[in-house]
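Example 334.
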Amino acid sequence: MLVDRFGRVATDLRVSLIDRCNLRCSYCMPPEGLPWLPRQELLTDDELVRLVGVAVSLGVREVRLTGGEPLLRPGVPALVARLAALEPRPELSITTNGILLGRDAAALAAAGLDRVNVSLDTLDAARFKQITFRDKHAEVLAGLAAARAAGLAPVKVNAVLLRGVNDHEAPDLLEWALVNRYELRFIEQMPLDAQHGWDRARMVTADEVLQLLTARYELAPVSDPDRGAAPAETWQVLAGPGVTGPGRKVGIVGSVTRPFCGACDRVRLTADGQLRDCLFATTESDLRTALRAGADDAELARRFRVAVAGKKAGHGIDGPDFVQPDRPMSAIGG
Ligand code: SAM
Ligand code: SF4
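Predicted structure in complex with S-adenosylmethionine:
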């Protein structure tokens, strides 16, 4: 098992497939993009499957593929099929901006993908372009529909609210998600953008999201024991536009104001083969170099254990000595 010194067990591996992206979300990367990782530094499919296999042998039960934009990597359905063949088979999911899901959703489902999270911050095409610097709103909506049609249910939608840009859309987004049977989660903006432009005072907090939603919806908290290591606090949507029956939910991920580090079960592998025990870690374990130098599975497993054992108690964003990691979100894997 992958246990840290606070007794937390890592069972959820986030794997970044690529650092490149076809959007430029303002809270993630600058409009001109970033210096992308050289291709030869990216893990090959064989290397990636091997490292995930080692993680699975150490108790990892869930593998989430992310990026950058994971579907920009060639051959993701074939990679999913290989990961689905691991023993014991991990749960497989992907976090994507959805642009390429119209092309890939059916193949991903056929390959064994279990779930998908699609990021969408606005219902307005012009505002989408303002936030992402790309005119791709229609593609994302088509991608979401393709995911649902492919049976990748429940399709989850992640939204980041930006003050004065799309925060007024919170209840509209919820109504749209209820009507279309997507599960919506709002995520607090974190200091992980490449530009280092995050400003706590401008961040839309989890409390504010709740206020914005309760102006139109009757919500009831889902009791904590159901939460486990899930970062989202979940609310039942009891009444409001688009509520047609029981069981409708909305999530709020208060990563900054309501940290869930004490229950964290995650560990992350970057596209260039660096193991990170936290989104906010400032150190990494270089599995790629070890693997390319001929390390056997036992040695790789040892490195996994050492990396996880050293995990800090929390992200410390509010601490006086907090330092934003050098690696931006897009190169870590969100
Ligand atoms: N490109 C894919 C996407 O957008 O879904 C996967 C990678 S992206 C880094 C994963 C998630 O991180 C997205 O839901 C995105 O909204 C979120 N994200 C990116 N930068 C963020 C930030 N600074 N604070 C909070 N969430 C962020
Ligand atoms: Fe790309 Fe996702 Fe970052 Fe947006 S949040 S720029 S879609 S990696």
